[in-house]
Each structure stands twice: as structure tokens, then as C-alpha cells.
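Margin note: ligand = adenosine-5'-diphosphate.
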Amino acid sequence: MMEFNKQDTIAVLVGGPSAEREISRNTGGAVAEALSSLGYNIVKLALEPKTVAAQLAALKAKAVFNCVHGLYGEDGRLQSILEAAGLPYTGSGVLASAIAMDKAASKRFFIADGISTPACLIFGKADLKDKGACLEKIRAKFSLPVVLKAASQGSSIGVAIVKEEAALAAALEDVSHYSEEVVAEEYIAGKELTVAIMEKEGEPTALPIIMIAPHSGAYDFHSKYTKGATDYLVPAPLKEEETAAVQELALKAYRCLGLSGVARIDVLLNAEGTPFVIEANTVPGMTATSLVPKAAAAVGIDFPALCALILAGAHY
Ligand SMILES: Nc1ncnc2c1ncn2[C@@H]1O[C@H](COP(=O)(O)OP(=O)(O)O)[C@@H](O)[C@H]1O
Ligand SMILES: [Mg+2]
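Resulting structure:
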């Protein structure tokens, strides 16, 4: 645990080059406001990769609260700049961030550790030169619907749930524009869950599970970011043994990827009660209405207290 004096300058980093920069500004605004309300000396800084190290030095920042989603903020690049600058930062380290951001790399880690995750095929750059061959492999392994995902995107961008054969080729073409690798994944029908993990005295601990119930039936960009489009139930109304299995799986996934600080693990639970990890989010949204704050509130941790706990976990 890091101890910061309230006079120390804490930089809240926001923005960045990814498509999620708007969402990052909301996260950063909420975090900055919450920490300021506790008396911390906060400076909000828009991430400019080339100059961020010099800017942080000029501010004499003592630590960074990272609110940059996606490119740079969530993929290990920013973490590597901060390591070089010797500045403590919130969340996961360089390698863990890079693996978690990449859905193909994450799958390889989950599979190697025997962690329950939907069956998949991973197509690399060379494979994708022959889309026809990829399609044949997909058809041979999966029945529809099948899920196609760009390896390195978030916020449901570059994710296609293909329900009809006629849409498969175009979906593969489209998804492969977002990334050099594509994951084709078995579709899991069932409950959509997410588990926030926090470190308590250095030990990863699962917060109450959140069940996500989009009114449209699909948890896409619209359902994620439109007010009232999705119901969030916390704690998720599951059987006791399902809750235990989902939390245990989320903790396994967290450890498997080597994550630290707060992370959110997305899990699908099928009708038989078997949970599957789909991905890890290492810079989860942190507005007052985001999922991690909802889970923390369910155990009595209010939003400013949550931000202070995350800051105290900053490391390098
Ligand atoms: N294997 C799957 N089976 C069914 N639905 C899926 C599957 N993978 C993803 N989805 C749906 O697509 C959404 C986005 O996928 P996810 O892998 O979490 O990527 P991201 O959140 O980074 O866009 C999920 O929240 C879920 O609703
Ligand atoms: Mg997700």
C-alpha cells in the first residue's frame, strides 16, 4: 500500500488515442472529483504519449491514477512509460495489461491454465490472408451463432455475433479490419455477468457479481453507454454454488493473467450453470454509475472511498 500525503500531486490521466477517449474523460472526471472531495491534490492530464513523461515531471506528480481506456492506457504502453519514469500507477503492470488487452493472447493464457473459456479458433495475420480457409475452419468447428472478435479492441467494437451463414464472410472481413488477429468463439447462450476484483491487503478479492440484462438482448455499444438501456442486478440473482463458481473462475482468470489493482472479469454462465471467462478489463469504467463502483457500493464502499483504495494500491 502506498501512502500519499494530501499535498502530493496525483495526476489523473484521461483521454488517449483510442476510440474510448470520450468514456475515459467521463471516468477521469468522476475520479478527479471524488479524490478532490477527499482533499487530494489532483491534476487532470490528457494523455499525449510523446510528452506525458515530461509533463508528469514538470507537475512533480507522485503517482498516476490511470483512467485511459484502450490504446496506450490499457495495453501496457503507458505503464511502460510510467515504469521508466519511476512513477507509481494504479492497476495492472506492463505485461499483464498487454495480455489482457489482447483477446487472442488472453485466450492462449486461459487455455494453457485450463481456465473455462468458450472454445475458439485464433487466426493470425498470415491466416487472414486466406479468408476462405478461415471461413471453412469456422464452419467445420462451430454451429451458428458464432462470435468473431478483433483481438485488440474494446467496448464491443470489432465484436460480431453471427447468426446466419449469409453474414459470416462479411463479418470476418469487417472484424479483421480492427486488428491483426481474429478470435472465432463458440457462442454461449445464458447470463451475462461481470466480476470486479480488488486487492485487499495484497490478496485479490471478488466483489459481488453483477448481472447485465440489456433490454435489446445484446450487450453492444448502445446497451453499454445509453442510459436506461440495460438493467444491472447486484448481487446477481444466482444460486449460491453458481455465485461461488463464477467468483472463483474470475479470481483464477485474474491470477492467470498476472493482473493487479482493480480489474473486471467478464463471464458468461450457460443454462447448465457452467461459467466461461470471456475477457478481462484492466482499466474498467469508473464513473459513479459504472459497474465496478456498483459492485463496491454493494459491500458498503462508496465512490470516493473506492477511488482512494485504488490509489493506495498504486505501484511500479
Ligand atoms: N462467446 C460469446 N458468447 C456469447 N456472447 C458473447 C461471447 N463473447 C462476447 N459476447 C457478447 O459480446 C460482448 C462483448 O464481448 P467482449 O469479449 O466482452 O468484448 P468487449 O467488451 O471488449 O467489446 C459481451 O459483453 C457479450 O454480450
Ligand atoms: Mg467485455
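DSSP finds eleven helices and 13 strands in the chain.
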